[in-house]
Amino acid sequence: MKTHKIAVIPGDGIGKEVMPEGLRVLEAAARRFGIELDCTHFDWACAGYYLRHGQMMPSDWFETLKAYDAIYFGAVGWPDVVPDHISLWGSLLKFRRDFDQYVNLRPVRLMRGVPCPLAGKKQDDIDFYVVRENTEGEYSNVGGKMFEGTERELVLQESVFTRRGVDRILKFAFDLAQSRPKRHLTAATKSNGIAISMPYWDERLALMARQYLEVTWDKYHIDILAARFVLSPERFDVVVASNLFGDILSDLGPACAGTIGIAPSANLNPDRIFPSMFEPVHGSAPDIAGRNIANPTAMIWSGAMMLDFLGNGASRYRAAHDAIINAIETILSEGPRTPDMGGNADTSQVGTAIAAAL
Ligand code: GGG
């Protein structure tokens, strides 16, 4: 039996609080389904390695992590001490780029037992994926400053859209749409205002669509698309978006499905040359950190996605994934619940309950 080497990076803030619950449930699932996991912990965080060394990770981080099958990541950010762009570009974004995790796959689902904040929507009405481009686009450090501190101060920031980068994320999204019963793809754009990169994105989209005749597709400008998430989420199946638009939509989607505390994500290197990374959509949430009240569900669900990816189609791993989702839904229906879901349970109580429900 293969032993999967997992690099565990809890990170900062509530990342440190939800990670033990993620591991608790992973261990329970691994025991039940006969999966071997070998976890190694790294304290690469603002309130960890950074405080001692002035950088987020050691310089040999790439070689170190390359030896792992997956990265299980909590959250990054301690803005009172380290500016967010330093911590993000010093860890999370390095993983995504250097390990070519070009797909950020973010399921948006109204889970059983979660009251929907949108009037009149049923469980089946919210069940789609946001496929976020994860290595280029608006997330760039290309640009510069001139005339700093003067009246003529000028700040320039470029977006980067490559043919390879655009085509591969569109292909992943169309493949996913083709594998689902609805077979529908929606693309986010803003080609009326962003006059070079977004028309290019639209052009590549239309070309890619020609190869997927069984998939129906449409595209919306990001502003009206955001409104449609709230007004009619049932129209979506697979939503593909550039890095920034995908980031925004994948916070908005889970908010429409109850709470961002349950939203998982998978940063995938689909070619499996480098480790993929699994993390909650939420960040380190400094406002509630240290109180043990964060919802651990997103961390736990991300662990389920990790098992499924590690299994690469194997039924035992798929069964482990499904059992975790079922345990999450049981506890969301029957409690205990954290305060973001109207309950008064703490993080550990919810994690323990989900592990027991397995
Ligand atoms: N667990 C995700 C996390 O720590 N997110 C912090 C954040 O600000 N991420 C920005 C991004 O995902 O692009």
TrEMBL record:
Entry cofactors: Mn(2+); Mg(2+)
Classification via InterPro entries: ICDH/IPMDH (IPR050501), IsoCit/isopropylmalate_DH_CS (IPR019818), IsoPropMal-DH-like_dom (IPR024084), TTC_DH (IPR011829)
Name any one GO molecular function. Answer: NAD binding
- Name the Enzyme Commission number(s) assigned to this protein: 1.1.1.83
User: Signal peptide location in the record?
Assistant: none
Isopropylmalate dehydrogenase-like domain: from which residue to which, for each copy?
5-354
Reaction(s) catalysed by this chain, per the record, are:
(R)-malate + NAD(+) = pyruvate + CO2 + NADH
Report keywords, A-Z.
Manganese, Metal-binding, NAD, Oxidoreductase
* Entry's family note: Belongs to the isocitrate and isopropylmalate dehydrogenases family.
Q: Report the protein name in the record.
A: D-malate dehydrogenase (decarboxylating)
Please report the organism this UniProt entry assigns to the protein: Oryzomonas rubra
Q: What is the lineage of its organism?
A: Bacteria, Pseudomonadati, Thermodesulfobacteriota, Desulfuromonadia, Geobacterales
